[in-house]
Predict the 3D structure of the following.
Amino acid sequence: MNGYRVLFAALALAGSGPSFGQSASPDRMIFFDWGKSELSGDGKATLDRIATEFAASGKAQLTLSSHSDRSGSSIVNLAMSRKRAEVAAAYLESKGIAPAAIRIVAVGEADQLIQTDDGVREIQNRRIDIQF
C-alpha cells in the first residue's frame, strides 16, 4: 500500500452523488483521454506548476479529487478515477511532494463538471481537481 490517503465518495457508486464543492480553478485541473490514466504533456506541465506552487505555499496538504465521465459502469469509473489520482500523486511525489501530504479523493462519476446522460463520454468530466 502506498502512503497516500485515499477516500472514496460512497455515493459515486450509485451514479449520483453529493456536490463536493466547487471544482478547482481551471488552472488547477488536469484532464484524461477516455479509458486512459496516463498524464498528457499538458497534465504534466500543470502538475509541475502545482508542485512549485505547493512548495512555495507553506501548506501541509493537497487534495486530488479525481472524477470520471459517465461512459462506463459506476464501479469501473470509480476505480479509474482512483487510478488516475494515483498516477498524478506519483508524479507529484517525483517532484518532491511527500506522499503523506497528498490526499486522494476518488469521486468517480459523481459531481460532473458538464452534466451528461449515462453513457456519454465527456473529457471535462475525466479530470482531477487539485486544491491546497
